[in-house]
Design a protein that fits this description.
215 residues, alpha/beta, Arc Repressor Mutant, subunit A, Rossmann fold, 6 strands, 50% helix, 6-stranded parallel β-sheet, globular, single chain, 2 domains
């Protein structure tokens, strides 16, 4: 029996490449593609795939918000996150909200194929350079913290934080997240306030402590 798959990514070129890779396997079948996070849940309810291959950074509704909304619906679809982010912060967050697989976008196609097959079987898979031990250690550190202001951020504010920490301007962030520059500025101001950060140096220091940036 073939594993049915939905691809959710806002880049058409990426979706085409993923479809070609997945449908080149005799046991895999792509039954739908989605370009907007807002359409993912309705698509899953309509086609009921075995596996969702999900990008975290999507317009309107982020991949993390999709994961959060998917949990209580119990549709039976297993999720493999395909992301450009390879830090423990992103991985731990995705796993926390129910993803079974996490593959970084610069990994080889074999890694994604493994992740999809393992997810369909109910097994976890993390592509290199990620590891269960490093993600678990990160999650333990965060749980041990008495208060974690990061948890007060919305999924979109977290995306803006990750991009801002890597030096992206508000204009860059707006373009990447398909939002207006004013909205990006608002998210940035809100996250700075919630985290008690005063400027860019504080933001970078926080990102380093949190594991969002590699030293």
């Amino acid at each position: 029996m073939r594993i049915s798959i939905v691809i959710a990514d806002d880049h058409e070129v990426v979706r085409r490449g993923l479809r070609a890779l997945l449908e080149g396997e005799p046991d895999l079948s792509v039954v739908a593609e989605v370009a907007d996070g807002a359409d993912v849940l309705s698509t899953l309810e309509r086609v009921k795939p075995d596996v969702l291959v999900l990008d975290l950074v999507m317009p309107v509704v982020s991949g993390l918000d999709v994961l959060k909304a998917l949990q209580p619906r119990r549709l039976g679809t297993r999720v493999v996150v395909l992301s450009m982010h390879a830090t423990e912060a992103y991985v731990a967050e995705a796993l926390r909200y129910g993803a079974l697989g996490y593959v970084v976008k610069d990994a080889g196609g074999t890694e994604l194929l493994k992740a999809v097959r393992r997810a369909a079987a109910g097994e976890r898979f993390l592509s290199a350079p990620l590891s269960e031990s490093s993600v678990r250690a990160y999650a333990d550190r965060m749980q041990a913290a008495s208060t974690d202001p990061y948890e007060t951020l919305s999924a979109r504010e977290r995306e803006v934080l990750h991009l801002a920490a890597k030096g992206h301007t508000n204009q860059d962030i707006a373009r990447r997240l398909t939002i207006s520059r004013r909205t990006a500025e608002t998210h940035r101001a809100n996250l700075m306030r919630k985290l008690g950060l005063k400027g860019e140096k504080d933001l970078i220091r926080f990102a380093l402590r949190r594991g969002i940036l590699d030293i």
